[in-house]
Design goal:
Radius of gyration: 14 Å
Shape: globular
Strand content: 15-25%
Distance between the termini: 9 Å
Strand order of the largest sheet: 1-5-2-4-3
Number of strands: 5
Bound molecules: adenosine-5'-triphosphate, magnesium ion
């Protein structure tokens, strides 16, 4: 049975991304297939925690919402190498990665500093499904 858990806070910087990523890793370590949906369109950051960077085919939730890409194409296997021998998997749907694609924008700043603070905040939420 698929279960859906949502992680949300009305404030920024309260640990939503770290909690979501750690929960996903904990469940995957127990052999579950976990889908992580980063719905923080204004300040996406979970992909940084999973070490996922944007390539030309790195479609996102934002691409899907705009109607051009099937949601299946927006899911990326970010299972850590340390879990490769197990049954658990982590699939990430990044919210948006325009910052990574455009040098000088917020994604570059996030990667270099490890902080989410360069991005402005609204509708802050991260959801994941297992
Ligand atoms: N349990 C924790 N204990 C200590 N520091 C933490 C904990 N969880 C997160 N942090 C730190 O707090 C900061 C914010 O964490 P995180 O990016 O997960 O929050 P967020 O709510 O997703 O932020 P944003 O609203 O910007 O997306 C980071 O520097 C992170 O390392
Ligand atoms: Mg976050």
């Amino acid at each position: 049975m698929t279960r859906i858990l949502s992680v949300h806070s009305f404030r920024g910087g309260t640990g939503k991304s770290n909690l979501s990523a750690n929960l996903a890793a904990a469940f995957a370590a127990r052999g579950l297939r976990v889908g992580v949906f980063d719905t923080d369109l204004a300040s996406p950051g979970i992909h940084v925690l999973f070490g996922f960077t944007a390539g030309p085919e790195s479609h996102t939730l934002n691409d899907h919402i705009q109607g051009s890409i099937l949601i299946e194409k927006c899911s990326h296997d970010v299972t850590p190498a340390s879990m490769a021998g197990g049954k658990g998997r982590i699939f990430l749907v990044p919210a948006a990665m325009e910052g990574d694609r455009k040098p000088g924008c917020c994604g570059k700043a996030m990667k270099s500093s490890g902080s989410m603070t360069p991005c402005s905040a609204s509708a802050r939420a991260s959801a994941w499904i297992c």
